[in-house]
Structure formats: C-alpha cells, structure tokens
Amino acid sequence: MWFRELSEFFDVMPYYLLVCLPVFIALSPINPVESASELDVHRLAQFELSGTLHGSKQAALTMDARGPGANQVLRKTVVVKMTDLSVAGFRELVSNGVGGLLFLIPPGLAGLSAEAREAVLQLEEELVSGDLDIPVYFAEENDELLELYETMRSEGESGDSGSSAMSAMMSSISNSGYQLIVTASSPQPVKDQVVISTSGILPGSSGEDQLPTILVVAHYDAGAGAPSLANGADSNGSGVSILLELSRMFSALYSGSRTHPAYSLVFLLSGGGKLNYAGTKRWLEEQIDLDASSDLLSNVKYVLCLDTLGKDEPLKLHVSKPPKEGSPGAIFFENLKTVSSNLFPNLPQPEMVHKKINLADDTLSWEHERFSIRRLPAFTLSHLQSPRSPERQTLLDVPAGVSSSALQRNTRLVAEALACSLYPRMEKSVCNGELFSASLEPKEDSLNGWLSLVTSYPRHPSLLSDKNSDMVKALTSALARYTQDVSTVVGNPDRREPEFVLYDTATATMNIYRVKPAIFDLLLSILIASYLGLVYLLLQNSSFILYMLASVVRERKIEEINGHSKSNGTRNGHKLHLS
User: Fold this and answer.
1) pLDDT recorded at residue 174
2) Contact 221, 464 (CB under 8 A)
3) Closest to 263 measured CA to CA, from 215, 305, 206, 304
4) Low-confidence ranges of the chain (pLDDT < 70)
5) Which residues, 6+ apart, have CB-to-CB distance to 122 below 8 Å?
6) Cα dihedral across residues 128, 130, 131, 132: positive or negative
7) Which candidate, 8, 199, 269, 491, has a CA 20 to 30 Å from the CA of 251?
8) DSSP 45
9) CA dihedral for 399, 400, 406, 408, sign (positive or negative)
10) Which residues contact 203 (CB under 8 A, 6 or more apart)?
11) Which of 395, 370, 188, 186 is nearest to 275 (CA)?
12) pLDDT of residue 360
C-alpha cells in the first residue's frame, strides 16, 4: 500500500515543482552574508535642564537610507557628512518628515578648516538645543561608510537626473538600497542621578582661627552633541589640568617652613558644570548651610574659576561685578597683567569682561556666578569672550586642538599672580613673576599628563553619574597626592522638581543591510502572482487543452499521411495502377 502512495506522490511531484521552484528561486537572496555589516554609533545627547528637554528622545531605528541630495526623505534615514549640512538644511529635512539622521564625522577634527569648523559648531548647537522626536546618530568616517555614502549620493543624483518617470522607476528597480537598523529600547533616565565634587586644601601657617582663603575651581565634566564623544579637552580639560598642576607646584611651597604662606589654598574639582554648575551649588550648600562647624569659607579673599584655557588667545577675566579698587580681586587682576607684561611682553595683556547675573535666566553663564550669588568675590579666567560660545560644548574639542605651550604659559601666569596674593610682601612690592622659574616652573610633560588623564574617557554628565565613577576616582586620587583633607560632596536632583534629568543609551550598534527597494518587491509579487494564475488556468482547463492539442496532432498526422501517399503513389504498402 505504501508503495502505491509513493508512486502517486512521484506522479504529481513534477506539478508541485512547476509551481514552487520558480517562486523559491525568485525569493532566495543571492548572498546574505555580504549584505550585512555592523558599526558602532553615538546617539545624540538627551537631557533635561531646568525643565527643558534637549536633544533626541528616540533611539530605535529601522528605515531605508537616503543620500544628502534625496528628494523624498519622508520616514527615511538621511546619511550626510556633518561638514556638508547647514542649519537651514537640517531644518528643511525635519520639516519634510525625515525619519532619522546619521552624521558622518570627519577624521582629524582639530585640522578642519575655519569654515568647516564653524559649520559643525552651528549644526551641533542646533541639534543639542532642540527637542527632536527622531533618532540622531553620529559615526566616525571609515572606508565602508564612505562607500555607502558615495553609493547613495550617486544613486540619488542619477535618479534625480532621469529623463522620464519610467526611467526613474526602472533605475529604482535595478539599483539596490540600504536599510539601517538600530535595535534599542526607549531611553530611560539614568538610575543614579548624581554629581560629585571633590576638594582638597593646602592649609595656611597663620595661627588665626579663620584663615584667609583663596579658592581655585574648575569643573571637570564636558559637553558635546554625543555624550560618548565628549572629550572636552579645552573645555574644561585645560582648566582641570592647570588646577592639578597648580596643586603640585604650590604643594612644594607649602611643604617648606620658610615658604609656607599664611593663607589657605583650596582646590575644588566640581561636577555638573554643564548642568548649570549643579555640583558647585551643592558643594556651597554643604559648606555654608549644612555643615555648621565648617569655617572654610568664612574668610575668602577671592575665588578663581578656570575655564577653557588651552588656546593661543588673549585671556579674559569675567566678573559679575567689577572689583573695588584695592580689593583682593582687583589686586589679583593687576598682578595678572603685570606678570603677563613682564614674562610675555609680545602678547596681549589680559582684559576684564563685565557681565551682570541675570536671575531671570534658567542657566548661569560662568561658574563664578554660583559664588557671587553667595556673596563671595569670584571671577572666571578664560580665553573665550562669550559664555555662549559653542566651543564650550562640542565634539570638536579634542586633545589635538589644545596648545601645550599655551597651557604651560597660562599656568605660569596664574601661578605667579596667585603667589603675589599668597605672599603679602610680593603683593605690596612689584609682582614681577620670577617665583616659578627654573625647577619650579610648570612642566609641559606634567600638564600633558594631566590632560591625557582627564581626556582618557568621555566626561559627559550622563556618563559620570555614578558614585563609583572611575574618572572621579582618578581625579580625586590625583588631587590627594598634593593636598590634604580631600573630601567629596555628592549632589542629587530634587525628586519633585529636578534641576536636571540625564538619560541612558549613549551608544548603540547599527546594522546596515543591502536591500532592494519596495517597488522591486511589488513588481516581483506581481510577476509571481501572474505566473501562478497562468499555471492555475492551465490546470483548470487541462482536459480542454489536451483535447485541442490532440486534435491538432491528429490533423497534422492525417495531412502527413495523405501527403506521403500522393508523393509515392502507394497506399498501405501496395503500388497503385491507374487505368
């Protein structure tokens, strides 16, 4: 019995193959392995500051890719070089319903032309300041991405230059496209929303109960369009490097009995500088409001904040209120100018920039404003003219863009001006800047080492929001080598009305697939349906078709027989005789 069933199966199997085999051939991929690739991408920053959302709210991405010149970008991911897209072009893409963006970051960011650098800064500022509902990613250029980019750009240009709608459709059918996929859940707030500030002190030698104190402050976090690309070499890796080098230089003076100043020198590495200086605010609350036994800030001469000091540009001393003549702040500024003219006479002298604190603004301009609000004399030293400069939060801020000579020069200027304040005899006489010379001068190798340490890991607040952060531990350990009573203050945002909210998913893996367009699938479906319909009609009318074919074959055989008989004059093998 089973032999008969098997025989029946083999009898009908050719008909199944007739239907299914062409379908399987049409649907099978040519080479699925070479059509897929992976790359690491960096997501646009997402955070809330003072109730305002910044950056992109989306992370998942599953869309077809298009080049920068594509006309139809609705629900498509546009791949574009960051140096080629203007702010106006970005806004146009968003208004046209673009589904996602992948920016290609050029290599050698420090060597970009001034025009390209300005274009990137403006675009990055637009991306971070906006509230976007599309996924935005960044990726460093490589050979594979450049090939993808050039292919899509050339296909886009050829499609746009088609002579007719039919040629454009045929081009879209014949060409293969790319599909970009990022599998990620919806970004969620970081579990540990913390900012950590660490401080150390070089205590003065005076026997007074309330020692006069000078604070040197620098925030260590960095900002950029993508958290995982926030190197922050100049802003504010340069400030942190100078602070650590100053702690090393002055610790040598404080360790000697003859050179031990009467004033205390406090070094503060504050967190949350890019979050409206939340770490500085929390540290001040700890010292003034919460710790009644602390007299650290009871007799502050001034607070010097270091911010963005790694370029060969003139220095600016930013103040909220011009210091009175003869005050410690005014004397420090005069000493700074004197030292600058004596040591570097060919360079422009530092200048003072006055900007009042606008309490109506949601964010402060400079870090010294946190101290000024607490009625502590404070100012910020920087080479930037404006606090709104996009140079303070950009992925272009890489270590290669920091000038080692400028870093060493600015360290020397600050150290000499500080020394004149610490030693009254020098302050009353001429501050000529000769204390830190020869073996005591700041070391370029040491400064480069501090800069390498602080830029060894991205320092966006969302990546440092951890009580066990390796970067914070490394900075605390470095400060503890040269100062005493090193302590940390941890700050958390208010639960009901948080000053800031940080989100996760800083990086992701993007899969790139080489695929045919949707119109190709539609055309293939039509062809398969037509083929199956034709086979169905043949099977349904097989008896009629066989009858017609048999009739045609029978008639042809009769005609052949008749024709053969006439030509040979024979019939049924017998010769015919005509009378």
Assistant:
1) 53
2) yes
3) 206
4) 1-36, 155-176, 206-209, 292, 426-429, 516-521, 563-579
5) 86, 87, 390
6) negative
7) 491
8) P
9) positive
10) 211, 254, 264, 484, 485
11) 370
12) 82
Q: Which residues of 270-308 are buried (b: 16+ CB within 10 A; e: fewer)?
A: bbbbbbbbbbbbbbbebbeeeeeeeebbeebbbbbbbbb
SS3 75: coil
Answer yes or no: are the C-beta atoms of 344 and 392 closer than 8 Å.
no
According to DSSP, the residues that pair with 265 across neighbouring strands are: 202, 214
Q: What is the pLDDT of residue 256?
A: 87
Strand partners, 446: none
Bridge partners of 214?
A: 265, 302
**C-alpha to C-alpha distances, 198 to 1, 113, 170, 463, nearest whole angstrom:** 88, 38, 65, 17
Euclidean distance between CA atoms 217 and 204, whole angstroms:
18
Positive or negative torsion for Cα 395, 397, 398, 400: positive
Please choose, from the candidates 143, 133, 110, 118, the residue with its C-alpha nearest in 3D space to the C-alpha of residue 46: 133
Provide the 10 A C-beta neighbour count for residue 347: 15
Q: What angle do CA 125, 387, 249 make, to 5 degrees?
A: 120
pLDDT number for residue 536 = 76
Q: Which amino acid is at 569?
A: G
80's CB contacts (< 8 A; 6+ apart) are 67, 68, 101, 102, 103, 104
From residue 429, give the alpha-carbon distance in Å to each of 164, 437, 544. Answer: 85, 19, 121
Query: Which residue, among 307, 365, 275, 271, has the nearest Cα to 54 in the 3D structure?
Result: 275
Cis (ω within 30 of 0) for the bond into 236?
yes
Residues 243 and 218: their CA atoms lie apart, in Å, by: 7
Confidence at residue 434, expressed as pLDDT on a 0 to 100 scale? 85
* Spatial separation of the C-alpha atoms in residues 91 and 110, rounded to whole Å: 27
Would you call 463 exposed, middle or buried from its count of C-beta atoms within 10 A (0-12, 13-18, 19+)? buried
Please state, in angstroms and rounded to a whole number, the distance separating the CA atoms of residues 477 and 210: 28
Q: Which of 504, 507, 522, 515 is nearest to 62 (CA)?
A: 515
Identify the helix (H) or strand (E) that includes residue 7: helix 2-27
- Residue 104 to residues 78, 79, 84, 149, 398: CA-CA distances in angstroms? 11, 7, 10, 9, 17
Backbone angles phi, psi at 563, to 5 degrees: -65, -40
Short-list 189, 272, 265, CA closest to 490: 272
- The CA-CA-CA angle for residues 32, 34, 40, to 5°, reads 110
How would you label 448-460 residue by residue, b for 16+ Cβ within 10 Å and e otherwise?
Answer: bebbebbbeebbb
Give the span between the Cα atoms of 418 and 412, in whole angstroms: 10
Residue 503 three-state SS = strand
Residue 22, pLDDT score: 56
Q: Give pLDDT, residue 19.
A: 54
